[in-house]
């Protein structure tokens, strides 16, 4: 995986994180094989899937390296497993990809070109579209609203008319982000206390605090099979998003900003408890209540719940 000739384009290790959804994983890999960037190494981290993902990949994707996690490590732990392996084998650039994505053939090339531009860039992300439409934006980079205690996917739901240009951003969406070896050496890997959700926002914030740029490049394009609104999320997703929102702002905000952020995040969860109960969505209400309690008590990492 190491590139001997330093003038040659760097090899990119594409780390596809998979938890079930073997058909989506195979489709994602097919779009990676059609990239116009010539130096790719494909690595799938199977996050303890129970749909036979590993066995199917061994038979249908012999060109892909496979790492099998002993248990579901979440987004943070699963990607960390893949990154440690890639770095140990000499990777200079790592492209973290969810298995429920499809990539435009020029995606990797555009990201490599962007991450190599000065000033020093730690991470770069593509234009992300919805699953069914290459014109509807899912994320054009991320913005942190410190007053409202929120992380916003810029442009979500808008038609792409070229209104979002390459620029520095607060964070990029974790469904597809390219990072450099130098960035990881400087700030470390994902914090696995998040388990899933908000960890990419935390990671990008740590990079920016360390003096690294985080960028959005719309010439790189991908689709992501993910809902645009919180009402379409599962109770477990709502739990991690709500709990980790408190975790993030407790860590990165300070002074009165921290007080306002934690108040805003807590108020949002209390609203979720009451609103979902009024609408008869008891599982979502329970998830919001548990997120509020665990967030304030500092119960991080993976949690095992069944929300009713």
TrEMBL record:
Pathway: Cell wall biogenesis; cell wall polysaccharide biosynthesis. Residues 14-187 form the Glycosyltransferase 2-like domain. Keywords: Glycosyltransferase, Transferase. The keyword DNA damage does not apply. GO terms for molecular function: glycosyltransferase activity. InterPro entries: Glyco_trans_2-like (IPR001173), Nucleotide-diphossugar_trans (IPR029044). Pfam families: Glycos_transf_2. The keyword Translocase does not apply. CDD domains: GT_2_like_c. Belongs to the glycosyltransferase 2 family. This is Glycosyltransferase family 2 protein. The lineage of its organism: Bacteria, Bacillati, Chloroflexota, Caldilineae, Caldilineales.
